[in-house]
Amino acid sequence: NTAIGTSVQSVVHMVHDTAEWFDRHPEDRARTEDMEFLTQCMEETIRRKAPFISYLVRRAGEDVEIGAASIKEGDELHIEIPRANRDPEVFGPDAEDFNPWRERPEKLPRYGIGFGSGPHACLGLRVVLGNDGHSGSHVRFMQKLFSHGIEPDPAGEPQILAMSQDESAIEDVVTFMSYPVIFTDWKGSAA
Which of these, 100, 124, 150, 154, has the minimum number of CB atoms within 10 Å of its CB? Predict the structure, then answer.
């Protein structure tokens, strides 16, 4: 199921991405109860890694030129969302990198097209990010996990679903089958 798969993978990737971010930016570890910061982390993870299905299929409604490509009405297009969301002309020279402090691109949400857009937009947008854009269930869930000190288990090895080259064109967009974690503060805060 795409809804469940995308939700699980976005949470696991956010744990993974923020753990790496905290290793390089330990000053941000104190922000794990800050909903705005966690929302930016979730949006950045979604921008770079989502969704569970790595590309959208659409038919061109009219003839159009995109760069050097000539698209004819009726042509089937496969739009790789993570690749589009890593365009340095839109997201900056470090578009490949996870950076929760990334400037919001003009005329685009921070998560790019990670939820699609228009009539085909993902219905889960409000679930993940909330009606106000920064208090959704996924962000609150991450806040709770961080309040208990979630970290990747240094003794555990994530299990990744083997995919063909066609299924995963971007190396770091993997499907985790398991991702061992530890909790360093099981009592946690009251968050």
Answer: 154
Which residues does 126 contact at the CB level (< 8 Å), separation at least 6?
136
Measured CA to CA, the distance from residue 143 to residue 137 in angstroms comes to 10
pLDDT in tens, 144-160: 999 999 999 999 999 98
Q: pLDDT of 105-124, one tens digit each?
A: 888 998 888 887 777 777 77
> 33-50: string of b/e by CB count within 10 Å (b at 16+)?
eebebbbbbbbbbbbbbb
Question: Which residue type does 48 have?
Answer: R
pLDDT 10s digits, 79-107: 888 888 999 999 999 999 999 999 998 88
* Rounded-to-10 torsion of CA 105, 31, 128, 163: 80
- pLDDT tens track for 5-32: 678 888 999 999 999 999 999 999 999 9
Q: Using CA atoms of 77, 116, 44, 15 in order, give the dihedral in degrees to the nearest 10.
A: -100
Residue 15's CB is within 10 A of a number of other CB atoms, namely 21
